[in-house]
Amino acid sequence: MKNLTEQQLLDNYQKLVDIVENTFEGERKENLLKMYKFFEDRIIVAPASGKPNYHYCFAGGYVEHVLHIVDTAKKLMKVYESIGAVIDFTEEELVFCALHHDLGKVGDLEHEYYLVQEDDWRRKKLNEWFTQNPEMQFMGVTDRALWLLQHFDVKVSQLEWLAIKVSDGMYDDANVQYLKTFKPEHSFQSSLPYLIHWADHMATRAEYTEWKYSEKKTTEKVNKSVTNIKQAVGKQVKEKVETQPSASAKDLFDELFGDK
Length: 260
Ligand SMILES: [Fe+2]
Fold this sequence. Notes:
mainly alpha; two-stranded antiparallel ribbon; globular
């Protein structure tokens, strides 16, 4: 369990924005930056999952996970090539899919996806630290990711769409039709969808082992993370009610995590 400092949260978010700045260009870059600005306050503190035994269940876990996938995917691309594979996709396509495979976890336009679990019994017995927002329209995470990208007018190629769609591999029944085919003409025409799934699977498992063998796996650490999220959620609700423009990330975190 990590307990990221205010500076680490902001640094991670800046790394993510830098990747967007340095990887894409033109309208796609501008629209991605607009999308990240819209979700900025929410993305910075979002966890990557609802249970510590899944992966990166702490404030800032989402961005850490996404950065981890981008790094893992780039490394796997080199390994894949070194064992004889022909790389039939670009690094831009790889990074685009790695960056956005879990975008649906930030929620939709009005709602955040993960809410702090207020039920003590569920938290203690089921280890459920965050719960999925019941007010949201149900959608799979990858479906929401693709919907959000189109909402912000971010062009997604057919190959990128497929790679994001099947990033959970066989863990999502909806992917069976794409992954379990015996007709050569139905199999993927590029290795990108496999690379994204391998990267996500491998990095997620690494994150699990990081939690499992961490000496910092203490209830206090989890509680601190949950408290941070609770404060962040409270702040967002307050802003919404007051219909004031969102505070900048710096102001938000000064208030939430700064020295009192
Ligand atoms: Fe993921």
